[in-house]
Amino acid sequence: xxxxxxxxxxxxxxxxxxxxxxxxxxxxxxxxxxxxxxxxxxxxxxxxxxxxxxxxxxxxxxxxxxxxxxxxxxxxxxxxxxxxxxxxxxxxxxxxxxxxxxxxxxxxxxxxxxxxxxxxxxxxxxxxxxxxxxxxxxxxxxxxxxxxxxxxxxxxxxxxxxxxxxxxxxxxxxxxxxxxxxxxxxxxxxxxxxxxxxxxxxxxxxxxxxxxxxxxxxxxxxxxxxxxxxxxxxxxxxxxxxxxxxxxxxxxxxxxxxxxxxxxxxxxxxxxxxxxxxxxxxxxxxxxxxxxxxxxxxxxxxxxxxxxxxxxxxxxxxxxxxxxxxxxxxxxxxxxxxxxxxxxxxxxxxxxxxxxxxxxxxxxxxxxxxxxxxxxxxxxxxxxxxxxxxxxxxxxxxxxxxxxxxxxxxxxxxxxxxxxxxxxxxxxxxxxxxxxxxxxxxxxxxxxxxxxxxxxxxxxxxxxxxxxxxxxxxxxxxxxxxxxxxxxxxxxxxxxxxxxxxxxxxxxxxxxxxxxxxxxxxxxxxxxxxxxxxxxxxxxxxxxxxxxxxxxxxxxxxxxxxxxxxxxxxxxxxxxxxxxxxxxxxxxxxxxxxxxxxxxxxxxxxxxxxxxxxxxxxxxxxxxxxxxxxxxxxxxxxxxxxxxxxxxxxxxxxxxxxxxxxxxxxxxxxxxxxxxxxxxxxxxxxxxxxxxxxxxxxxxxxxxxxxxxxxxxxxxxxxxxxxxxxxxxxxxxxxxxxxxxxxxx
Length: 745
Ligand SMILES: *[C@@H]1O[C@H](CO)[C@@H](O)[C@H](O)[C@H]1NC(C)=O
Ligand SMILES: [Cu+2]
Fold this sequence. Notes:
globular, single chain, 4 helices, F5/8 type C domain-containing protein, Galactose-bd-like_sf, signal, 49 strands, 11-stranded mixed sheet, 36% strand, binds 2-acetamido-2-deoxy-beta-D-glucopyranose, FA58C, 745 residues, Gal_Oxase/kelch_b-propeller, binds copper (II) ion, mainly beta
């Protein structure tokens, strides 16, 4: 399958003007939320964005990323300055950069990593490396799989951090490592593993992409930083963390980077890839035993830390992931894909919506809700609940899209709060057959594929941001069933003709939804400042300090396109209630992109694409975003001597721990899974650390875990502490137990 990266590279210099409003900020500063809240963007911010910046190069089938650097001949020719190869001339390293399809580099068979260092002759702003596998990759084996890419300005100085690493898929397509632009003359690739277990590697050709200029960021790290890139052998469309071992699991579909086969609805399978941050490796696992094509599912963690994946392509199926093992669970009562899913306060898994039926071409609107009990491995339909009330009213495919990607919040008394994307919100009572009652009104409809995140669970506060009136900007095709027709169908005037029924730009509207003290009362909705950059198909991640990081998306929601990608993420402050633009990322993250907080308090942002549409825009990678709180140059606080036995703590209990210095804040963030802009399990509980008396000379603290299971939903959480400057620790994982919760025995 050919893979086309049709990405723009923005050539805009970003002008940023900051003031440090220390005086007034100090007065209102929430000590738990740290110093860096004091930065406020007041000046004009010219930001690179595909929407309002230069049009990216798009040349049909030719992959483009910035500009491909041509290989000069003669004195200026690139050189291989270091490389391991067989002794014969036919396989020499020079063949990796000679633009000749008949020759290739083959390494020796001694110990890995095999390596090659290319001298570009002068310094460039390097943005990407492309490796072409041998055309006989299938019979020869030995294509580069595991790899690391480093840059340098000096021939033998490899002290700069690796810019990209991971594992490339074993097929004949071009392999990319796209990273944040850096100045370099030397590019080094280390091949850590070869396909088919070969002791050597073979590469047909390497090419380099460059930019003309880069976004200039302030040196103080106040906008955060991007990098490295992690290359996956799949498009990571769903991601979650293994809470026991800390690594990240991702999955695509029944293919690495495209749609599943036609007949995979109930006998499906899924490609998965696991990233191990400590060893900087990515491994692939094809999961077929659960017969579940997990493309476009619901995701939620149960109390024991099992990720429960429901429906999607194999629309009846339920699969659990637990410590590396994938298990088939009972089928749902009804088939669904794109449903909302969340864990309730008693540990059950609730689903609603996703009325695409047995497959995406069937419509089963208003299916009753369904709830899974992990203690019995049974689904129970909730017949007083269906998606008719929670549908958005503005979409042109009402029976297909209107109940997709629902924002759900597990809350007190086993209720589920439906927060969107429809404007009319609801309470769902899972103990009473799913009875639905009004929950309040949040603006007007128009937030499909926007995000909602509970950034302060004790206060019952949820931030909702962005989305669009319709799932898709263009009407694709004539009838509701012709879903997968190209926008060119709208010709002769794609814009105008399609705009009649479609063409609604994304919104920048954002709201704070405050849940009432009593379940069943109406929530209070307060508009908070609009996003600087309206977007849909973005992701939202709550950080340990309560800030919400919104990243990716596009201004005209169009699945499998990158044209209007929004490359400027934004940070929302829960204190000031304003958005500030952060460091732009170089890789578009649009439809099917994901973002997830990692235990080290950085954010993984990846994926996008996964389609057979031509031209396809598939992103088989992720990038790490490091928020400003880790760029202060200060040492991070470290948690030790935690009182929890085996990291388990009861609801309402105290947890004590030692820190290697003074802290002023702490928080719990629940593990969650992200796909299709939704991560309903994600929430933050703000904790108040109390210094233990009589611990002079030691920084011993105690925090109280909330008693209320609707606030501290039982299951796995990341405990962070924050110092006086807002610098967070690495997370300590705790399991919040609840007596009488429904869990696997
Ligand atoms: C869905 O729920 C509504 C309101 O409770 C009800 O009137 C309607 O009949 C239900 N539809 C289906 C298909 O069950
Ligand atoms: Cu999807």
